[in-house]
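Re: 1-deoxynojirimycin structure - here you go.
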Amino acid sequence: MTTLDARPSTDALVVAHSPGAPDGEWWRDAVIYQVYPRSFADGSGDGIGDLPGITSRLDHLAELGVDAVWLSPFYRSPQADAGYDVSDYRDVDPLFGTLDDFDAMLARAHGLGLRVIVDLVPNHTSDEHAWFVEALAAGPGSPARERYLFREGRGEDGQEPPNNWQSIFGGPAWTRLPDGQWYLHLFDSRQPDLNWEHPEVRAEFEDVLRFWLDRGVDGFRIDVAHGMVKAPGLPDWDGHVSMIEGSEQAFEEAEHALHEHASGAAERVDEVTGSGNQGPMFDQEGVHDIYRAWHRVLAEYDGDRALVAEAWVEPLSRLARYVRPDEMHQAFNFAFLATLWHAPSLRDVITASYLASDSVGAPTTWVLSNHDVVRHASRLGLATPGSRPNGIGADDEQPDEELGLRRARCATLLMLGLPGSAYLYQGEELGLPDHTTLPADVRQDPAFFRTQGAELGRDGCRVPLPWSAQEPGFGFSPTGEAWLPQPSTWARYAADAQRGVPGSTYETYRTALRVRRAEALGSGGLTWLPSRDDVLDLVNRDVRVVANLGTEPVELPAGTRVLLASGPLDAAADGTLLIGSDTTVWVRP
Ligand code: NOJ
């Protein structure tokens, strides 16, 4: 047993980040809740979530205590990649409602004091976008084809693709047309990549930004922010394009590297995380000009509008370049999300994150779950946490649900105790796991089909939310319909089964957000206190955050005031409180 050091000597403290002003720009310390529209709440009864459904449930988010909402795409789209294939950037898909429904949702959100960020998908359009339809009809050599990346093939009669790039969803990144030309798609063949060297493409997206800014949105999440500009000549590349969180092989290599160097300097994180999405299709210098231009567009508007980068860029020092003062405002910290359940690694990645973001004056932007990864309640419940990054199916090891939830809550309280901004993914406030036994015939993720099922894909984390334990379909839709089946065990996760229940995941999140706001933790500073290797012990303003990832309990000094704990605390015979395994507490230092 270890007792927390009540008063560590000052020379043992490591300051990783100094506090900022509590009333800085809103996005620096905001907690932002990701709504995945098709799975949040269904108003129409067709089993697919929609904008009126979102509006009807915004009270839940205000009550939870988040500052803002980010909506994944709801634009016109044939839904080949669940809306990340946009055919009209200025309209709402009838599946989700109308522009009037959007305005009503935005007005309600603003009325509740919630800001709203929408998703912008600039790397590619849908194959049903007017530009692509025009390009196909216009034929090879036409100006309409110059807005995309059409090329002649290699080999005899151009039968071979123009280069060897692979799609992130599996298979070649090129598709050949009957007229003989090929077009590039880093994702599905129904998501042709735009040519960002083309002035019309640049002008169009600035106009799309203005369209939504004029409607009143508070910012944009930029999809594939690291991919829009490709290296000149589109050279061959033999590296691996990882499917978001990485391959199992990459995972094993990272785990090996981390355990070889159990703890160490922050620079080592750059070494360990430095093998990500590199290559001629990612993180090219030219993308930064685009963000400088967009920064200027947003700056014309009042109210601190913000851009957040979805850039799977490593190492962290490269990611920081997206949030330089004249570029974007935030960039998701996926290095943190992908870190193993290993206290020294987490400490390293957290410290490195502050070093990197402080060097450009940006906030760190924490995230543990989203619509592209296995939910943290599930990935942390695997024997080797995180070992199934491409989805979990019925034939795979099933996560230990109780362990996963305990660790997920522990991880969340660690994250929310840190300075910076944080994103929550819908349902994590309920402790939702992935659906880990979805049958193949209901799967919809293009990655599943393009890899012939080798990657199960992301449907498991996209299952419609349970609102009411006793209603059909757990109250997701008035008809009980749901576009993906919900596990029958989800009654216990339903929002109405947790509201008002002390210690429920929902109430724990709510308290965490209240204390975080009251104590100004988001704009605070981080000082590491000396601790056991498997314990993270830090002070942020007047709150001490202790996360025990080890198996041995940690004893709280007598008289410590506990503000919040991610799980029940045991008491020793003399009444001393013990922080058990996989538990985080917030205490008054
Ligand atoms: C990242 C999005 O988050 C993901 O859902 C989508 O499939 C790809 N970008 C392609 O747009």
